[in-house]
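Subject: FAD-binding protein

B.,
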Amino acid sequence: MTGPRMPDPDVKTLAERARIVDDLRDIVPGEGVVDTTNEMRAFETDGLTAYRQLPLVVVLPETVEQVSRVLKYCHRYGVRVVPRGSGTSLSGGALPLQDAVLLVMSRFNRILEIDYDNRVAVVQPGVTNLGITNAVAGDGFYYAPDPSSQIACSIGGNVAENAGGVHCLKYGLTTNNVLGIEMVLINGDVIRVGGRHLDSAGYDILGLMTGSEGLLGVVTEVTVRILRKPETARAVLIGFPTSEQAGQCVADIIGAGIIPGGMEMMDRLAIKAAEDFVHAGYPLDVEALLIVELDGPAAEVEALIGEVERIAGSNGCVTSRVSESEEERQRFWAGRKAAFPAVGRISPDYYCMDGTIPRKALPQVLAGMRSLSEKYGLAVANVFHAGDGNLHPLILYDANKPGELQSAEDFGNDILRLCVEVGGVLTGEHGVGVEKRDLMPEMFNEEDLNQQIRVKCAFDEKHLLNPGKVFPELHRCAEMGRMHISRGQLPFPDIPRF
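Prediction pasted inline below.
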């Protein structure tokens, strides 16, 4: 496998592959088990396509009972499991392992119930993000989190990574819009957490599961909040001669008490790529572009547009254009949501990063990225969820040129270190996966990481679920409970341990 070092494959599991495949076929009959090399190629990678590995076997269950039996079987025989949704993860979160069952949840693709009285939808994890909105749009509702991959990404994967989107500034991330889940633990137990109610007593297991990246359990049902579409929504395109001015405008808008439905920023390279691809009407003579959407009652939106334009003018904007129709508003957003594939047209390869910073640090981080771009000799196109400080730098490289992939990864690692240095975090919505795994010590000390691993041990004491992801080095659960590791040194290191 290319990419980062993963856990050594279990020799016993590899030797017993034929038996494991036959046993899994008894649990998931028909076409639910895929075990030939050519057929498994479709599952060898996720959205982080630089890394790939064939799994031990692919299993596509259709019922909760099948999921439960598969996990119970794997727990009994010590077989590792990698859960997978639509495979759009950009952090390698669904990267297979050579000795692991790849548990693909794409056949869980039904919307089970829409409850308008309680404003919730109950869906299976394989339903696409956009599929929820499409199902309720005719009645004037929608599902708020809207990642750029919403046409393909699954709601189960959104829960695993705590996905965001362009409208999460005002309406929140996945964790703010999920009310309940059904999940299967590694031992096969099926439990329910949360429900249609707003809040519940006891530990916040729902919050813990949202963003747990497949390390704690497998989600089989999700209850999400649906919202009434606002009376009016209009978007403003605002161009600036520098990215620093655009960044300051973002801070001033939020500082004025205005919370837009969405506020996105693109730099010159991303603007041109998106405009050439979508023809959204973006200005091409600016260094930075803000898309600011205001929604609510028509009179309020009109007043807020005027205030936003005033703030933009005080920050030196050189162009401003307000959408005059729903079609035009959608076109403004189409360019932003197509930024990733658009950049793919101007570079053989690109590396999509994800980090989050305090909004006030945006000018500093932009300047730092320019310096890093010169250091590594690689261009970078910047696309930001500017309102909440979630950055998505797209590092352009050519994998056919020796050393460029490594340079792109080193460039990305330095960007993430910069994010942490200014008070930010390693990820905003893509997750840690394998991409940021070895950078976790940049943000957490040893005790922090050990405490997180203790949570992992409480759910999965054998470390069978998605091993090799998130944590740079896993300690055995017995060690976590019985001994203290000081500065990475075990007490009595001369004693053999097994």
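The chain has a mean pLDDT of 93.

T.
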